[in-house]
Amino acid sequence: MRPHRALVPHLSPEIELRGREAHHLLEVLRAKPGDLVTVFDGKGLEGRAVVESVEAGILRLRLEQSWEASREVGVPVELYVALLKGDALADVVRAATELGVTRIIPTISTHSVAKEMGGNKLERLRRVAAEAAKQSGRTVVPVVAEPVPLRQIPEVEQGLVAHVGAELRVREVLEPAKPISLATGPEGGFSPQEVDFLVGRGFRPVTLGRRILRAETAPLALLALVTAGEGL
Ligand code: SAM
Question: 142-175 burial string, b = 16+ CB within 10 Å, else e?
């Protein structure tokens, strides 16, 4: 069985876990003294630790070994995803983390149904990213940024915007060794002016096939073509 994984603030010889992380290891995974735990700091350092003691919900670990580890894509992959209504963004954050995204920036555009996001929701999305990073064996937890209006997207080095009716395929334009920025639209799609704006910022419109994908499916299809599809 694979050792449990725990996200810790930093890797030190003695690690003390409390709160949510300790609760998960103790109550859900039933960790006990002597068990091995893979610890990671979310910034690229990973290690092997042994559970030394469990007392009043506090878990003490002894670090045996640590190493620089990476199952990361190798170049920054940022995703400008339209702010979505309900809980749809949580599913996008979870799967995008598994697919190797490094930064997720919810964006607000003309046809967005949702126009704002509360602080609690942002916190929850960040927890979803941390949990998905842990479960998928990532060593870096992607950043979930505060929502920004689409017009604040800066110029990018290599950008792809999924746009219904575009003809270019991702594999025809993708340069996998360069940092990449991706953009997908809201339930109502991008306006033509917004697509022009993104093109001006360095994004190339690409197709995701002949069908219309939901606003929560499109970011994952686009990301999968860039990372999973390239074996990254
Ligand atoms: N009626 C809208 C339109 O024509 O743009 C549909 C929007 S779709 C539900 C939401 C977003 O998913 C789009 O803005 C686009 O970014 C992406 N998308 C969905 N299907 C796509 C496709 N076949 N090719 C490229 N992008 C697509």
Answer: bebbebeebeebeebebbbbbbeeeeeebeeebe
